[in-house]
Amino acid sequence: MAAVRSVVIGTAGHIDHGKSTLVLALTGTDPDRLKEEKARGITIDLGFAHAEIGGFDVAFVDVPGHERFVKNMLAGVGGIDAVLLVIAADESVMPQTREHFAICRLLQIPAGVIALTKADLVDEDTLSLATLEARELVAGSALASADLIPVSSKTGSGMEDLRKALARIAARVPERASSGIPRLPVDRVFSMRGFGTVVTGTLTSGSIHTDQELITLPAERRVKVRGIQVHGAQRTAAAAGRRVAVNLGGVEVADLQRGDTLTVDGVLEATRRFDATIELLPDAPVLKHGARVRVHQGTMELVGRVALSGRIDDPADAQSLAPGTAAFARVRVERPAVMTRGDRFILRTYSPPATIGGGRVLDPLPGRTPIRTVAGRARFARLNGSTPDAVQVFVEERAGAGLSIQAAGRRAGLTREQAAAIASALVETGGAVQIGSSLFSAPLVRVLEQRLLAGVAEHHRAAPLSEGLPREEAREKVFGHAAPELFDAVVARLSAAGTLVARDRLSLPGQGSSLSPEEEQAQAVLDRAFLDAGLTPPDLAAVASARGIAAPLADRMSRHLQRRKRLVKLDTVLFHAEALARLKDDVLAGKQGGSAARVDVAAFKERYGISRKYAIPLLEWLDRERVTRRVGDTRVIL
Ligand SMILES: Nc1nc2c(ncn2[C@@H]2O[C@H](COP(=O)(O)OP(=O)(O)O)[C@@H](O)[C@H]2O)c(=O)[nH]1
Ligand SMILES: [Mg+2]
């Protein structure tokens, strides 16, 4: 298959200015195909024709000029590469010349040619006046220096120049990304004898091939490509920028309609609301917060409401949008829409419909986040940045749930490969952490790591005998509803870094211990026995034999309890730490009496009912702890 460069060129202009006649003259095909169009002599719906011009394969989408059919014009203009702006020399610029051109500007159609038609009907002066008005219309736009060609479909004058100008445009327009996600916004659906269901449209990105499994959105019907036609010829594949007719298996004509999208499964998702930048035309009425509007994107026409977040250059102003200004907004649509980040759309008033502005999708799947707050506006500003910036926002918003790389692609209008590349870039620059096939916010992961360590430390403090915080408890406490793989990954990261010891319980290094059930049991018995004994503890061997604990085990557990500061050895006597703490409090309380601010050995022995064996080490300990100070035979309480 010869790789002939193809372009799609759409007509634009007021009714009766000669658009359809011009397409017929250029291609030999009458784009007006409906009976009613023939009878009334006007274009109602989109018409299609093609021709080879200057070695390029040029597809024409002819649009209706009548103001009642602008919605049909909008369904055709979405996929075009360049515009053929038609202005009749005898009437010059008229209302739909302006409206159609404004739409092309809002959709950022990058190139075009201006045809001054019906040149045979006017004199030199009228022609120069029309030229002047045409130039004025396109001043400051992508068409500011476009070729302007006077032509006559009647006499054929200027047609050669027009063909040359179209060939120059065809050479200039950027090629569409056939590596992008396959997207065919459907503009016509019909049944063909012997074939079944056929849809047509402009493949706006990606490529399709026969026998491919595709999906229709928003209905999510699985279909199979039985055949592809480009300009009436059978093909096995078609790439972005082609007008195609696709014969589909597995679907009835009644199941499809203009506005549906044909795509591969998993790359696009229907939505009921989207976040966007919107701009109002300079001659549009003021747009109020909450206004009902018509939204046109691709071949879709939707009705929805615009919630203003704030003007882009003056965020405080959010009650209404003035003509000629731009805002961040959330649009809620009444039917599922199939769109993604980067898509351009047109806004029209609800009734009577008139084009008032347009915009660009920033996030096709926003959560129910507030938009009219400082944080909401800051979020919009970030979404308005680069695609990696936007993906970072999506990742942060998903918090503990994470964002699968595939979902990131759907939300940012990316192929799997593009999404994977952005994911690696975010991981590399430290914005995100990849766990399995999902992205998590790196700042969030750091916070969770800190919280987990704090939770484990807290557990060691509250339960010094425990081996550590049970995993499940840690997960519930610190991670709540976060994805389970996030918890596992954080635990793995911390233990790899040596800051956490992870067995079936989590502990800090050097704290908690992993004891066998037998050791755990022995330790608990010893701990209890010393705690109960208060200031007159038995000796270890006695406890061990009384409780049936083997001497070596008792020994080991005693050392373990001392390391954990549950037991404290004073001289040769083991005391429980809690008994010592209580003693300290009690002695200090004695100071409050004023005169009793002294203590001697005899009084001490009596007060606590203890023998000299215990009293001496305890008093010396109190000295060391600076609770008391020895003065001659007695002690002062400090
Ligand atoms: N004299 C003259 N008439 C034209 C020319 N181009 C179109 N017309 C006529 O203008 C009328 C409207 O043309 P049409 O192509 O349907 O206009 P559209 O509504 O812009 O598609 C028809 O009667 C055409 O025959 C032209 O170059 N010269
Ligand atoms: Mg027409």
Principal-axis shape equals: elongated
CATH superfamily of the largest domain: P-loop containing nucleotide triphosphate hydrolases
Number of domains: 5
Profile the largest sheet. Answer: 6 strands, mixed
What is the count of helical runs? 19
Instruction: Determine the structural class based on helices, strands and strand pairing.
Output: alpha+beta
Which small-molecule species are bound to the chains here? guanosine-5'-diphosphate, magnesium ion
N/C terminus separation: 100 Å
The Cα radius of gyration reads 40 Å
Strand order of the largest sheet: 2-3-1-4-5-6
| Low-confidence blocks of residues | none
CATH topology of the largest domain: Rossmann fold
User: What is the count of β-strands?
Assistant: 34
Instruction: Determine and state the CATH class of the largest domain.
Output: Alpha Beta
Q: In what range is the share of β-strand residues?
A: 25-35%
Q: Which second-level CATH architecture of the largest domain applies?
A: 3-Layer(aba) Sandwich
The percentage helix is 25-40%
* Average predicted local confidence, pLDDT: 92
